[in-house]
Amino acid sequence: MKVLKQKRLLSQLLLLLVCVLLGLSGCGGDSNSKDVVRKDVPKDIPIDIPDETPDENPLFTGNAWLSGPGGDEEEQWNYDGIDRPFISIKRIEGLCTFDNGLVSVTDMQNERDEAWHSLQYPRPANQPDEVTFPPYSFLCDKQPFSDYRKVMDGEYVWTYSNVNDAMFYGNIVYDTFKKYLGEPGLDHKIRLRVHYAGRSRDYAFWDGAYANFSDAFPFYYSMLSLDSVAHEVGHGVLNRISTLNSFEREISTDARTLHEAFGDISGLMAKYEFTGHTDNWIHGEKIYGFSRHLNKIQTESGAIESLLDYDDAGSNYYLRIGMMTYPFYVLTNEWGIETAYDVYVSAAKNCWSPMTDLTQAAACIQLAAEEKGLSKEIVTTAFKTVKIKLFDDGVLSHFYVESNVETSVETSVETSVETSVETNAVDNTNASIETNSLSFKFIDNSQSTNQVIDWHWDFGDGTESNMASPQHVYAQAGTYTIRLTVEDQSGDSDYFERSLEVAH
Q1: How far apart are CA 21 and CA 25, in angstroms?
Q2: Domain assignment of residue 6, given as a range
Q3: Claim to verify: residue 272 and residue 412 sit in the same structural domain
Q4: Which of 49, 200, 216, 272 could covalently link to 220 via disulfide, CB atoms 3.0 to 4.6 Å apart?
Q5: 186 near 99, Cβ under 8 Å?
Q6: Each residue of 233-260: pLDDT tens digit?
Q7: Are 347 and 303 part of one and the same domain?
Q8: What CATH number corresponds to the domain at position 295?
Q9: Are residues 414 and 449 in the same domain?
């Protein structure tokens, strides 16, 4: 880790030297961020912020630029107008406060909001209390600078300044929701609380008033990242724009899945607004710990791979997030990420209900797309990848695998026959089935509005079968991807894949 840090520092110094020699301004630092330098800021006077006006943001009270470090041991940056933009804060008579009217940040000093936690579950929405939990403030000079509250493990810096990062991320999240909703995401400013609860706790949650983030030391670098801020604030936004407000009424398990999926997708949008790129589909990647892969159906270990596997997730609604996020990924490839998010937001506003299920939620997305003049069929295809049925005629491929204890059973008829059946041209990520047998029975569970008449199995070891529910014996242990392609009487086709872990 120390070697990597030295290499990064050397690269930064070399880049800075090139910039100086060539007379370039605004280069270096985070190459992924867009519009990183708003203006040159003198170091010797307090800085007004002219690019925000009362007419644009009536609550905005920022009047100074803050500089200082951010990030962690893996990736450090500076809010200096080069690495990353300066941070807008409020400065009054030498006191700098992390509150610009749109976003505020409170340092919890590893304490909890005990008054709220003591309430009986399910807890009501928390209420803002800026007397007990005031925004972080410090005595500042003419050019405000903060390197407050490093988290260290004795040798390495775990995080450089969560208050700086939270303030910066909060402003990006505010702008993101305002852009796509056409209004601020919340009825009040975004309130963030960092260093929440014990240093080793892994809290990241929305309580109705605050988004709270713990240090999670030493498991993660912090629970705070740009997408995690957007995710937690996204709960508050969805509570406001829809009827899926769990603080006011009971909502279904699937509605809770919608909450989590909306939060993850909002995190993607915040990263997109910051970087201008759509190449980071891993939620929580910058935490360097737990993450979800939103460009995959199986977003995390144990997540279901289709709606037809719904019961496998039990009561854990997180394991069903991919039913909403993967179709979003497919739709971004068709429409672009901004249009896809606009459709999801419209569905949430106008159609999602407290007792909705995932199929109904998908139908709402289809309706929202139609109302915007977009293709209904594209939405149908997108949700077909997770086996959510939005069609009158068609087929969904699906199968289960059972391990045979006895290995003397007859194997399926293995062929090398090529099939001309068209399949969905969409990547699939699948669960891993572990077994200590080499013999298996593959059980077709496909669903169709017409009769299925053709099956094509690829067992992943170079052998195939055209039986409906074949048996197969693997010659050796390993990991195999099994694909079933089916066709019904009307000529509609579909495929489904699972990964099979075979061991002696």
Answers
A1: 11
A2: 1-31
A3: no
A4: 216
A5: no
A6: 999 999 999 999 989 999 999 999 999 9
A7: yes
A8: 1.10.390.10
A9: yes
Lowest mean pLDDT among 17-31, 190-204, 330-344: 17-31
Tokens representing 139?
């005595």
β-strands 493-502, 432-435: how paired? Answer: parallel
pLDDT digit string, tens, across residues 61-98: 899 999 999 999 889 999 999 999 999 999 998 899 99
Distance CA 108, CA 97 (A): 15
pTM of the model: 0.83
With contact defined as beta carbons under 8 Å apart, do 301 and 245 qualify? Answer: no
Q: Are 33 and 274 in contact (CB under 8 A)?
A: yes
Same domain for 43 and 178: yes
Q: Quick one: pLDDT at residue 324?
A: 98
CATH of the domain at 417: 2.60.40.10
Query: Is residue 447 assigned to a domain?
Result: yes
Structural domain total, the chain: 4
Q: What pLDDT sits at residue 247?
A: 93
Task: Please report, for the domain that includes residue 215, its CATH number.
Answer: 3.10.170.10
| Contact yes or no for 323/388 (Cβ under 8 A) | yes
415 and 457 in a common domain? yes
- CA pair distance 175, 272, nearest whole angstrom: 12
Cβ-in-10-Å burial (0-12, 13-18, 19+) of 359 comes to middle
Amino acid identity of residue 86, one-letter, is: F
Alpha carbon distance 399, 5 (integer Å): 48
Work out the average pLDDT over 305-323: 96
Pair 21, 47 in one domain: no
Amino acid in position 20: V
Query: Is residue 239 included in any domain, yes or no?
Result: no
Count the alpha carbons within 13 Å of 268 in the hemisphere toward its beta carbon. 26
Same domain, 201 and 324: no
Nearest-angstrom CA–CA distance, 282 and 293 = 5
- The neighbouring-strand residues paired with 497 are 483
Which of 328, 353, 384 is a domain's end point? 384
Q: Is residue 248 part of a domain?
A: no
Report yes or no on 234 lying in a domain. no
At 8-48, the pLDDT tens digits run 334 434 433 444 344 433 333 333 333 333 333 444 444 55
Distance CA 37, CA 364 (A): 40
- If we measure between CA atoms, which residue out of 147, 139, 152 comes closest to residue 164? 147
Residue 481: its H or E element: strand 478-488
Q: What is the pLDDT of residues 488-498, one digit of tens each?
A: 999 999 999 98
Cα–Cα distance list, 36 to 39, 102, 304, 495 (Å)? 9, 20, 39, 45
C-alpha dist (Å) from residue 342 to 1, 110, 418: 41, 38, 42
